[in-house]
Specification:
mainly alpha
Amino acid sequence: MSVATPVRAAAPSTPVRAEPSAATALTWLAGGAALTFAVSWVGTTLLGLQHDLFYLIYFTAALGYLGWLAGRTQAWRDVLRHNLWWSLGVGALVAVAVVRQVMAQVGTPHPGGSYFGFELVWRGLVYGAVDMLALVIFPTVMAYVLMHGNRSGLPRRAGFAGLLLILSLGVSASYHLGYSTYRGSELSKPLIGTAIMDLPAMLTGNPVGALVAHPAVHTTATVHQYYGGAGTNHYLPPELNADYPDRPGGLSAVAIGAGWLILTGGALALGSRRL
């Protein structure tokens, strides 16, 4: 007498996320460019918000949009783990070169006390990091998607470098045009800066080095060129000069910024698996 062996149901396979099409990637890119322009134009040119409050709105909008995209393609992980240490090394070299350039320019006064410590974090480290996520890392990932993840061989690596540079400059131009500082010939300054920050991605395929270079530059500019103006390369828009007078920040700005950092850190911790 034979005993029938029960047949186990096959375990459901893990669904494979379909990568976005080229048209979808370009739509995402255009959406990011339009969003950053709208935030910078409305927040500074149209409303003239106190700069720390403007940064809070910009950080929230940019990180919210990029966080929404992070769960829709695996390309982020593929790009950011490739040649990681090489990218960080190139980013450190870029940071040293550009920081020296900032220090060689005309300096301005800066606030003192605990508010200045807050500004070093908020206007220096956080602003520099968010800018690079939006203007360099995001376009680099979209370039990877447009190339269907294939960067094999020197011609394709060179094509990837050229494509990410074009996309990055496009997003950067849209974003900086929202500030009155960069209308006309002055737009060339942030575009040159963006191209320099693209170097880690262009040379290694990984844009993470920009997260070393640009926060270092922003922090240095917060110390040395807090108010910007003539004789500077305009590293910290909106510039707090006669055209955009500084509004008091003080403890209210510290409280708003600290609360935002805590909430954002909590959200990233809760969503770390997805990101």
